[in-house]
């Protein structure tokens, strides 16, 4: 499938020359030992660097304990070609110049001649580069129930586009990237400050209890691939068409968090675009609920390959060159509070993780977390017209959730805190700052 590219030309690079002040205005350089001894007030306090701990207070060399040996986690089944080796082999089969490290560009080490004459030829060369998992466009038919002025119902049909990539193929590409080999783990570990094992350390996903719990539910020798999803509806323009986009991203917990957070590492990939539509085929009162159902329908189609892969596993070549049986399990979902409620099928006035009532939020009460099986049972009853009062008491929206058939997925535990809106803006700015400056 061809992806159109908008061509744009950038102007030249502005060069800024650093200028030094005249010799007469420069501050004379003096010996620091003489100046501090002459003037004790100019002495500065220095903080000695801690050689044992990192910047966040964690020890640089913690005690590592391997866990789950009885389940043989991360068992290997021979060697295979990693991502770069597979690309080279595919280029050789296509008859390409496998000896040229700059392929498809016919360039030498000294860059004596270019292999393209204009920007169109340059873009054509770029299109020959490996693209990764292919994009697919799925047309989703939405049948509305808009009524005319006389009250007669008339069906309106609206077609929306769901652009998606296979998430299992994206995980294969991530886990086989040799550039991430030194920043990847395939089994759980327990970290402690020292050999006494008194103070545990939770820093990466493989150091948490979730990994060990899932490992016990999988067959012997399985490799867990914690799937991290993220979505954020973004406003692209306000005065030129009111355009919006709804991207969905994916990463895996086998990769260290510093690499996942680095844009240049490409450890987080785009797997789809949720369609953004006004749903004018429905009356205004029905549009919000129909948009919620459209989101879950699209996410169900987008993540459908994870169902079979999470149940039976997929053989993948990992970054270290070994073949493992990988089970991708949804472990985390990163979103702001409105999208958290949308994912959890709860009202925005409620908590998407626990059963606290809206009027009790902020009170020192301890209530149980939401249970996926119980929530699915209440939603199923409400969709059949039974026990709708229990759904209202739990502030649940009766929608078929996309996470219904995902194996070993507890979506309420997967929702991560929204640091920006809930902590920095919610707790600090809207409460602490206003209270201290009032």
Percent helix among the residues?
A: 25-40%
Contiguous low-pLDDT stretches (5 residues minimum) are: 1-37
What about the largest sheet? 8 strands, mixed
| Helix/strand order, N-terminal first | HEEHHEEHEEHEEEEHEHHEEHHHHH
| Oligomer description | single chain
User: Which percent range describes the beta-strand content?
Assistant: 15-25%
Protein model, in words:
The protein is of the alpha+beta class and 438 residues long. The chain is 28% helix and 16% strand. The chain has 13 helices and 13 strands. It has helices at residues 32-38, 83-93, 119-127, 167-175, 209-217, 257-260, 287-302, 305-312, 337-344, 372-383, 388-393, 411-414, 419-436, and strands spanning 63-66, 76-79, 136-143, 157-164, 189-192, 200-201, 223-231, 234-235, 244-245, 247-252, 269-273, 314-317, 322-334. Strands 2, 3, 4, 7, 10, 11, 12 and 13 form an 8-stranded mixed sheet that branches. The protein has a 3-stranded antiparallel sheet with strand order 1-5-6, with no helix packed on it. It has a two-stranded antiparallel ribbon with strand order 8-9. It is globular. The protein starts with 31 loop residues before the first helix and ends with a helix. The model is unreliable at 1-37 (pLDDT under 50).
């Amino acid at each position: 499938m061809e992806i159109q590219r908008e061509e744009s030309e950038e102007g030249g690079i502005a060069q800024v020359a650093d200028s030094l002040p005249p010799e007469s205005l420069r501050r004379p350089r003096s010996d620091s030992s003489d100046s501090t001894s002459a003037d004790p007030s100019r002495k500065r306090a220095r903080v000695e660097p801690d050689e044992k701990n990192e910047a966040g207070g964690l020890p640089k060399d913690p005690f590592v304990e391997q866990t789950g040996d009885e389940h043989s986690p991360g068992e290997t089944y021979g060697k295979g070609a990693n991502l770069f080796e597979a690309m080279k082999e595919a280029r050789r089969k296509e008859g390409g110049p496998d000896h040229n490290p700059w392929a498809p560009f016919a360039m030498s080490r000294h860059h004596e001649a270019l292999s393209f004459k204009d920007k169109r030829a340059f873009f054509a060369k770029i299109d020959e580069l490996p693209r990764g998992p292919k994009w697919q466009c799925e047309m989703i038919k939405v049948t509305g129930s808009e009524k005319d002025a006389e009250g007669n119902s008339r069906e309106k049909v609206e077609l929306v586009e769901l652009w998606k990539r296979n998430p299992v193929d994206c995980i294969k590409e991530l886990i086989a990237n040799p550039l991430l080999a030194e920043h990847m783990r395939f089994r759980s570990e327990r970290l402690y400050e020292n050999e006494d094992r008194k103070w545990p350390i939770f820093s990466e996903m493989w150091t948490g209890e979730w990994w060990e719990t899932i490992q016990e539910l999988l067959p012997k020798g399985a490799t867990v691939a914690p799937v991290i999803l993220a979505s954020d509806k973004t406003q692209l323009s306000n005065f030129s068409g009111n355009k919006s986009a709804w991207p969905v991203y994916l990463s895996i917990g086998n990769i260290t968090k510093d690499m996942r957070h680095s844009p240049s590492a490409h450890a987080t990939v785009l797997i789809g675009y949720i369609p953004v539509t006004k749903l004018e085929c429905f009356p205004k009162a029905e549009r919000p609920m129909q948009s919620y159902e459209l989101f879950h329908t699209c996410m169900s189609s987008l993540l459908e390959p994870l169902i079979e892969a999470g149940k039976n596993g997929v053989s993948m070549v990992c970054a270290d060159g070994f073949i493992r049986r990988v089970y991708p399990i949804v472990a985390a979902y990163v979103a702001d509070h409105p999208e958290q409620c949308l994912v959890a099928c709860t009202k925005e006035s409620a908590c998407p993780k626990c059963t606290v009532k809206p009027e009790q939020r902020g009170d020192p009460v301890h209530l149980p977390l939401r249970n996926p099986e119980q929530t699915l049972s209440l939603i199923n009853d409400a969709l059949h017209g039974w026990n709708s009062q229990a759904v209202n008491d739990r502030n649940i929206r009766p929608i078929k959730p996309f996470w219904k058939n995902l194996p070993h997925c507890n979506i309420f535990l997967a929702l991560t805190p929204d640091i920006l809106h809930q902590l920095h803006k919610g707790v600090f700015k809207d409460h602490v700052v206003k209270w201290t400056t009032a």
